[in-house]
Amino acid sequence: MAGAAVLALAVVAALRRRVRATAAGRRFFRHPTAGLGLFVLAFFVTIAIAAPVVAPYPPYYQIDIAHPDRPPSAQFLLGTDPFSRDVWSRLVYGARVSLGIGAVAMLVAATIGTAVGAVAGYFRRWVDTTLMRLVDVGLAMPRIFVLLMAVALWEHIALWALVLLIGLTGWFGTSRLVRAEVLSLREREFVAAARALGAGAGRVIFRHVLPNAAAPIIVSGALGIGNMMLLEAGLSFLGLGVPSPAPSWGNMIADGWHKMAIAWWSSTFPGLAISLVVMALNAVGDALRDALDPRKEAA
Amino acid sequence: MPTARPRAGLTLAALACLILVAGCERPVGCTGEYCGTIVIASGGEPDILLPPVSEFAITRDVTDQLFLKLADLGLSGNTIGDEDFQPQLAERWEWDAPTTLVFHLDPRARWHDGQAVTAADVAFTYDAYTDTLVNSSFRSSLRQIAAVTTRDSLTVVFRFRQRYPEMFYDAVYHLRILPAHLLREVPRDQWRSTAFGRAPVGDGPYRFVAWKAGESIELAADSTFFLGRPHLRRVIWRFTSDQQVAVTQLLAGDADAVEVLITPDNVQRACADPKIACYPYKGSAYGYVGFNLAAPGDTTRPHPLFGDRDLRRALVMATDRERLLRNVFGDLAKVPPGPVSQLWWIWDPEIRELPYDSGQAARLLTRIGWTDSDGDGIRDQDGRPLAFRLLLPTTSAIRRQYARLLQEQFRTAGVDVQLDEVDFSLFNERARGGRFDAIINTWNSDPTPSSGFPQTWTPAGFGRSNYGRYDNPEVDRLVDRAVTSAASRDQARRAWRAAIETLNRDAPGIFLFATSNVSAIHNRIVDVTIRPDSWLALLRTWRIPADRLTDRDRVER
Amino acid sequence: MAAWLVRRLAASIAIVFAVVTITFFVVHFAHGTPCGTADRPLPPEVCRQLCRRFGCDQPLWVQYAKYLTALAHGDLGESFGLHRPVADALADAIPNTFTLALAALLVDFVLGLALGIYQAMRAGRFGDVAVGNVALLVNSMPVFWLGLVLLLVFGQWLRWFPVGGPNNPVLCPHVDSPYCLLDFLWHLTLPALTLGLVGAAATARYQRAAMLDVIRQDYVWTARAKGLRERRVLLVHALRNALLPIITLFGLAFPFLFTGAVLIETVFAWPGMGRLAVNAILQRDYPVVTGAALLTSAMVVLGNLIADALYAVADPRIRVRGGGASA
Q1: B215 contacts in C (CB within 8 Å)?
Q2: Cα C116 to the chain's mean position, in Å?
Q3: Nearest Cα to B423, choosing from C291, C271, C144, C285?
Q4: Which among A60, A65, A259 has the least Cβ separation from residue B324?
Q5: Is the N or the C terminus of chain A less surrounded, counting Cβ atoms within 10 Å?
Q6: Residue A267: left if φ>0, alpha if ψ -120 to 50, beta else—which one?
Q7: pLDDT tens sequence across A107-146
Q8: Is the distance from CB of C201 to CB of C138 less than 8 angstroms?
Q9: How far apart are CA A139 and CA C258, in angstroms?
């Protein structure tokens, strides 16, 4: 654990030094929480990648089932859960699952959202109207409801399908954002110049418009990962997310829920981990927004 | 725009004062010996309040207060002969012949709509219970009764096919007498969804008041009940999503009673609480993992894995039942020596069973061809991994805990187990239809093994409770001898023991736990007697002394 | 203004209609006949009833048409699990979710407003930074986890609040006296607080930014130049104009509230629509699922509509321009 912390600190310090050179980098680190957020993220990503090295016990191993629910101690850093599994080890392996699901789902959502928003913003007229109506319908149904229905309607839903679904229900906001950016960018000179040179629509979108619209996409991506993670946690809590015995921060909370009164550590630490990571993502997202888009005044 | 902060503080304080004041000004309602409301927190809800068509324990709890039997079990729990039974609907009985039993009904008995209870009701009830269209799960318990006829409006005659020790028990225990005049017109195949089942009319100590689906059922005392007016004026069952939430409500003071405290931590907290009294009693339930000996969905073929007796035996030997029990129950249960509950008189820790021996299990598995040829930690044979799915309902925290522990135990033995956690109704459907590999089930047994055991472990239970379709003619023969032809109690005990030992050798399942129940009831309720086979059977004798009535006891609604 | 309103209304209705259609077809394709699947055969009379209403053997379009006609008459079908009309079950559950959402919104806005103003007044100083970070942390917490922690601390350890349920079932099954009203509010506190706290953090951030924006405007300088006290300047002049983002948040709050309500209602055993929907989904009670889907989307769309209308009323610039943000 200490080793991972030091490594994360080193990563952040190095990054800071490199990035300080650019104006955007300086704007980024002007936020006091940005550096801290980056450190937290680096820490959790490090322990997720180095899980087999960091975790003292395998995540499925039930150490001594006759004596579960051991409080935190030197041997079990964060205690053991009702099935006598080491909470710290499961937290570390769970980081892989939870962070992974958040990142992949966000990738799916960002890709679809960008594509739809770009097409709607570039072509306008009826393409725009139909696509935006679709987005309205999508936004009208609360995400968790749609996901619950999907999970319930298909008896054994595979994990990759669940991740895909989480992504598929989360692209609506991004599409609106991208559409707004594209709408404003398409009137600029460089787009007219590209069109005059005979570039096709696709080429214009991908090589000229999107790179300039990258900033809001990245920012909403950073913030969106947090939302995806919270959603996965909620689903796992209801019993519909990652199936046991694979650890995810959400189903760790669900495992320990009923024993909260006597063994608070099983549910508290995963929840704390989620809170810290999402908070770090929010802080980094905010700082990125200021760094990448100098038009907006820092509050 | 007012500043929000200071005002918020004042409002909160004002609210607090109001609550305190309002708490003091409660109107005086019911006083005296016949007041009181008991709130029972339950982790399950009845499906329908019609005794023949429901097997849920919670339904039995409620219908026990609504409907009477001819006679009821005494506190001793002795099911043999008729000396230990208490008169209920029947005030007395006699044996006209070795196989003829005559009941004389109490003329004071009335249905809650005013009509008198007659012998015709009893005959009608027997007819309904044994009707194939009603398809009651209690039908097989009544198979030794040849006919039920009426001699006059208050005399009923039961004729048996043969003479055997528990004749009287069979005649009275399961039959809850129903009102013929209200149910005669309902088509027999519609009994499971008839309106009577949502608003029943009975003849018991309590009357039906209301049923709020998903929330609560309320009953009110019948002040003219002929066997003695119940002291507690109202009984309310409050339904929660599972039993643990029910226990939490009890501990928080929102409920007065729970049937079982389930876990050692709950017992510790509840029994240490000065406002709660704990009542330990022998549990009537045992839990087990049942293997499906037939192929899922096709009963003509054996199960690809569990049709192999050696495989089943190996799995039983690979399970450390003692330590699993310690994790889930602490010392609130015992490992049963077979499919036996602690309540049964045949409980005997000396009954021979397969031992826990992971080494022997591993050797056996290798011997029958299951080895880990690809090094992934799971045994396989001819390219097929040793993997199966375990079916269990989401409503039982105990079974979910066991499932996860078993999953890991089997994984270290090289067996891959996936969990199928489904809702309760789907669980029942798939269990009955045989669409599973293995199942974790809890069997709530009767006070005697005679009716329940054949239902679960002999072909008589195919399509009913014998979900795994276990069938061994030797076991059938021994059980039959124990139930019908044993000349003495000792002979019966020997026959039962032989039957269970034979069954254990076949390993149709892993017998995990036999509960020792601890019930928790608020200590203002006194004269509490709990009969182990049905904890609320004597509810009408419980009472709250007039000087210990609380606010909600005084409500007269 | 009126024309704009009519257009928005039409768009909203179209959206709800689309949701209804999608739900109907998705559910139909997923579970086959109305008579349940092989695993869950429905009792024969229920099946007969359903076939009478929907026409089991008839083509999909006819079934859909019948479904819509029934919907127009307010008939949402009969629940498999609860044995009562879906409309009744929803009617019982909605007021509970509604009061929870309203209470949460109250906590959200009151607390968020107060914190945002405080932060704006102390901009850049320790108070601002501290509150900002705490708010960020609370906003990042899984709402059900926060609920569990609050339940543990205030319900089980301190015993200040009840551990779940909407009321005391014996004394107050209905809210029919001042005492019962207080009892209801007492049970409502923890769930509403949980939902409200997470939202308040976001509201505070918005409010702070809006206030700081407005403070730099000319009319605020004018007020200061006139010699008004700082407090009056902020609270009377600046605040009025900084309220606009709040109205937008009001519209955005509905989806969040429903998502949160689903989880909170499970944790606190609150008998609202969220819990009803979750149980129905887990038990494959399809009539309730479609009814709940329909109702939630209708409420979300309505919330957006109200928010847009309020925004138009509050900001005269929009009215003059004759249009609003696109739906």
Answers
A1: 169, 271
A2: 22
A3: C285
A4: A65
A5: N
A6: alpha
A7: 999 999 888 888 887 777 888 888 888 888 777 777 777 7
A8: yes
A9: 13
Distance from the Cα of C35 to chain A's closest Cα (Å) equals 15
Query: What's the rounded mean pLDDT across residues C220-238?
Result: 65
Q: Is C269's CB within 8 Å of B245's CB?
A: yes
Q: Where are the domains of chain C?
A: 86-326
| Closest in A139, A257, A274 to C148, CB measured | A257
First vs last C-alpha separation in chain B = 46
C14: chain A residues, CB-CB within 8 Å: 133
How many whole angstroms separate alpha carbon B273 and alpha carbon C100? 32
Q: What is the pLDDT of residue C326?
A: 36
Structure tokens at A75: 């041997």
What does the radius of gyration of chain B's CA atoms come to, in whole angstroms? 26
Q: How confident is the model at residue B254 (pLDDT cuts 50, 70, 90)?
A: confident
Nearest to A253 among C22, C129, C145 (CB): C145
Asked casually if ipTM beats, i.e. exceeds, 0.95, the reply is: no
Burial A190-215 (b: 16+ CB within 10 A, else e): ebeebeeeebeeeebbeebbbeebeb
The token pair at B400 is: 């979910």
Choose among B323, B394, B411: nearest Cβ to A66.
B323
Among A143-152, B183-192, B453-462, the range scoring the smallest mean pLDDT is A143-152
The reported pLDDT for the residue numbered B524 is 92
Cα separation, C265 vs A148, whole angstroms: 15
C178 lies within 8 A of chain B by CB: yes
CA angle A222, A228, A230 (to 5 degrees): 110
**pLDDT score at B189:** 82
pLDDT band at B288 (very low <50, low <70, confident <90, very high): very high
Distance from CA of A140 to the nearest CA of C (A): 5
Q: Look up tokens 């920012």; give the residue.
A: A219
Residues of B in contact with C155 (CB under 8 A): 252
Please report residues of B whose CB lies closer than 8 A to that of C185: 15
Q: What is the CATH number of domain C86-326?
A: 1.10.3720.10
Residues in chain C closer than 8 A to A33 (CB atoms): 133, 136
Phi/psi region, residue B348 (left: phi>0; alpha: psi -120 to 50; beta: rest), is: beta
Chain A contact set for B326 (CB, 8 A) = 65-66
Q: What is the reported pTM? A: 0.80
- DSSP calls for B281-331: EEEEEEEEEEE--EETTEEEEE-TTTT-HHHHHHHHHT--HHHHHHHHHTT
Strands (E), C224-270: none
Instruction: Place C52 in a pLDDT band, splitting at 50, 70 and 90.
Output: low
- B399-427 mean pLDDT: 89
Degrees to nearest 5, angle at CA C125 with C122 and C127: 70
User: Which structure tokens are listed for A280?
Assistant: 């770090």
- Integer Cα distance of A45 and A280 in angstroms: 12
pLDDT single digits (tens) A255-278: 888 788 788 899 999 999 999 999
Beta bridge partners of B95: B101
Is the pLDDT at A218 greater than 90, yes or no? no
If you write DSSP's letter for every residue of A203-226 in order, what string do you get? HIIIIIIHHHHHHHHHHHHHHHHH
**Which of A155-169, B96-110, B473-487: highest mean pLDDT?**
B96-110
Tokens of residue B100, six digits? 């003829």
Q: Say yes or no for a CB contact (<8 Å) between C140 and A234.
A: no
Pick from B311, B315, B344: which is nearest to B496 by CA? Answer: B344
pLDDT tens, position by position, B236-252: 998 877 777 788 888 87
Q: B4, C81: Cβ pair inside 8 Å?
A: no
A271 contacts chain C (CB < 8 A): yes
